[in-house]
């Protein structure tokens, strides 16, 4: 009993400390219900959030962030033939993170080949950089890199910020311009998977 009780106290304290520190936990300091002595009573508040590792958290947030992409690339990531290229199994998605971040940050226009199929949708894809925070963008990219059978490293907020800090471009990219980034990775990527981020942090 006493052990369980102590463990619960430790969780409450750790949750309160860890949340604001990591920024992974949407801790609302102005929430009138929340205080150090009485945990937030709202349904779901604190539930599991503190127990989720950074990868699981990114996947959860990325899944809801993906709503802005799903209208074109579809919920199953298969896109629409001849119109919107697939993200499932796409070499653009699981390949170099330098290219992937730029595609979504600045948009993409003109002829492109994905999984051997050509696309050239008028107008191409708009830029999402201005509309999305670095963290939101990172979560969506981690999500599409690890859904529908895709498997690739996590993209962190810091990585998106790194690209933003060196890339002043505002126009949409074209596929040939991005060729040089096809296999290049933004420094700092970490393997995806439950718990994978923990050892990287401990280094
Ligand atoms: C309005 C429709 C639309 C939306 C919304 C959209 N895309 Fe796209 N996307 C496209 C089109 C069209 C292309 C191909 C552009 C070209 O032909 O140059 C593309 C290409 C891509 C590519 C490279 C090719 C591939 O299939 O892997 C990636 C990666 C991508 N989009 C990711 C995203 C992500 C992530 C989001 C959400 C943040 C998103 N897109 C939202 C239309 C869209």
Task: Please tell me about this protein's structure.
The chain has 203 residues and is an all-alpha fold. The protein folds into 2 domains: 2-49, no CATH class; 55-202, Cytochrome Bc1 Complex, Chain D, domain 2, CATH 1.10.760. It is built from 9 helices and 2 strands. The chain has a two-stranded antiparallel ribbon with strand order 1-2. A hairpin with a 2-residue loop joins strand 1 (112-114) and strand 2. The radius of gyration is 19 Å and the shape is globular. The relative contact order is 0.14. Mean pLDDT is 82; it is low at 19-29 and 197-203. The structure holds heme C. The site of heme C has 28 residues, from helix 3, helix 4, helix 5, strand 1 and helix 6.
